[in-house]
């Protein structure tokens, strides 16, 4: 019988950028709500040119000193706003994405600053934020504070619902977050004409009565959420059925949300550029933080 992993702590990646500190502010607020410690982590990458050096080399000592100063500065700023949160600092070594993925095996959540690359550039050059979101074994929140949202306000949490296993996981975490944050939940399910008619097109489609299909989709959405509504009776839920593609619809909903939750198939940016990836599109374009769920 497999032993269930006990997940503990919220990990916030600190890389010296303003975005990472803003993300850590959100992580600190979440840690207070979840009554979890906040772990500020800086990753010291092992560059090829550093092979053969020892831990006593002056260059290695300088890197560790600079990293320690970054973490200390971040903690000092956070404590001014969140005095009642337990904060730990950690330096780890290795490729940044790999190190954070390793930490995801036991963390309750990982919080990262915004992707440093554009969506197109990440296809070719890669992005550590995308890599972690696609491979982490716990939920990952990618900070997107474009509108200057409060860390935790009264805006709703939005979750995309499509009936897949990964979507169900996003729904589970969205309800949990909404309950802890005291926020309303908006569950969004999208539909499009081609999902019913395939690639075939006819002028007749313009005059099709979609009433039966819409009623069917509404009933399905209500049924898929029923168990979670019973489990979290304190969460106010609004069900929304929208005509259109999930990427476009959820991006529009992100303008009024405090957090948007989606599942991720873990596709590489290159594959996603052909097939499409709602989570990766939101990571680069959403107007609020994005909660990406794969496991955990």
What characteristic shape results from the CA principal axes? elongated
Extended strand count: 10
Strand count, sense and barrel status of the largest sheet are: 10 strands, mixed
Mean pLDDT: 82
> Roughly what fraction of the amino acids lie in strands?
15-25%
CATH class of the largest domain: Alpha Beta
Task: Report the CATH topology name of the largest domain.
Answer: Rossmann fold
Alpha-carbon distance between the two ends: 18 Å
User: Rg, please?
Assistant: 21 Å
Low-confidence stretches: 48-56, 117-126, 195-204, 266-276
Order of helices and strands: EHEHEHEHHEEHEHHEHEHHE
Binned, the helix content reads: 40-55%
Trace the largest sheet across and list its strands. Answer: 3-2-1-4-5-10-9-6-7-8
Query: Tally the helices: what do you get?
Result: 11
- Annotated CATH architecture of the largest domain: 3-Layer(aba) Sandwich
């Amino acid at each position: 019988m497999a032993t269930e992993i006990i997940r503990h702590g919220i990990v916030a990646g600190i890389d010296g950028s303003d975005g990472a500190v803003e993300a850590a502010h959100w992580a600190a607020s979440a840690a207070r709500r979840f009554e979890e410690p906040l772990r500020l982590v800086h990753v010291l990458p092992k560059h090829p040119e550093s092979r053969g050096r020892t831990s006593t080399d002056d260059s290695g000592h300088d890197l560790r000193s600079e990293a320690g100063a970054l973490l200390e500065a971040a903690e000092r700023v956070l404590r001014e706003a969140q005095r009642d949160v337990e904060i730990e600092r950690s330096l780890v070594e290795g490729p940044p994405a790999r190190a954070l993925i390793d930490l995801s095996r036991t963390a309750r959540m990982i919080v990262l600053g915004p992707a440093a690359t554009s969506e197109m550039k990440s296809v070719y050059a890669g992005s550590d934020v995308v890599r972690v979101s696609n491979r982490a074994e716990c939920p990952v929140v990618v900070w997107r504070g474009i509108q200057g949202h409060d860390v935790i306000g009264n805006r709703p949490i939005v979750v995309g619902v499509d009936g897949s296993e990964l979507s169900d996981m996003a729904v589970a975490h969205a309800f949990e977050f909404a309950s802890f944050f005291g926020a309303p939940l908006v569950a969004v399910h999208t539909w499009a004409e081609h999902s019913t008619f395939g690639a075939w097109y006819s002028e007749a489609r313009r005059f099709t009565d979609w009433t039966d299909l819409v009623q069917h989709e509404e009933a399905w959405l209500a049924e898929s959420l029923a168990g979670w509504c019973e489990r979290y009776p304190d969460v106010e839920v609004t069900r929304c059925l929208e005509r259109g593609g999930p990427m476009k619809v959820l991006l529009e909903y992100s303008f009024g949300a405090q957090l948007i939750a989606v599942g991720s198939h873990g596709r590489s940016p290159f594959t996603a550029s052909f097939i499409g990836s709602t989570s990766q599109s939101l990571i680069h374009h959403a107007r609020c933080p994005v909660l990406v769920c794969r496991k955990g």
